[in-house]
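Example 3.2
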Amino acid sequence: MRGPSETGSADGGRRGVLGAVATTAAAVAVGAAGCPSPAAPAAGEAPAAGGVPARTLGRTGAQVEPVSLGGEGILRTTGRHREAVPVILEALRLGVRYCDTAPAYQQSQDYYGEAFRAAGPKAREQVFLASKTHARDRDGALRLLDDSLRRLGTDHLDSWQLHDLREIEELDAIFGKRGAIEAVEQARADGRVRHVGITGHHDPRILLEAMRRYPVDTVLCAVNPADPARLPFLTTVVEEARRRGVGVIGMKIMAAGRLLQDRAASASELIHYAASHADTVIIGCSSIDEVRENLGARSLSFPMPPAERAALEARVAPRAGRYDTFKVG
């Protein structure tokens, strides 16, 4: 089996990682003191940070905020517990509702498991936890699932996603005899998995075909202002997901940091844009400060006005090819 080839540079990694042991130890202590307990979500919308309503994540019914914690950044590393765990703890302390990870993200799942233990017994249940499988066969997917549950320290995933779909042949394997979809069905039946999703940033046509073949609950796809220029996900995958009642999660919102490096747009603009199209956007963070800054965008007024979205797309368009290198061809 092959793993996804996404880089771990992180859409949110703008300042470098925490290095001082004293700083990280203090952060762990703060997080371990406990996480806030958001009120149980009501039907429709629920309160979010700064009084901004949460959104319903498609047919899952889960209440999510515009900005969520990604599984990359400092979390997509090995042996960086002292820097990675405080990032998760700070997000939990600030009331993050959706957390993303994957077996392919090095020790990301281990860091989450450690953070949940440090934050207390209620921490895990306060978030919608999503992990993935890059195995295309039933047995391989089930092995990855059991390993994910062990590393995360939980008995179930809120969403289990078929990771990094790129080719029709992969779909044929997944939906064929003893394919990964059999693992999904088994895990849903026995309670290890509550919802199923698909992810991809390579070719929108593959995600469209996956939605046609199976009634998935969520789709995780690329959303940024360079998207309309070539092989767009917004006018294909996102529109089809909306038609089917599938929850939409945005990724690559900063084009692996290139949009920021070129000063083509600010982090706030990019979050505002992407979260105006998706139910929530996941951002990999490299420090506690980045967690605070990114989650602070929850208080923006959504959606971004159409004129501002169009202006941002036009600003980015001349160099769009630099910002969509993760797409096919």
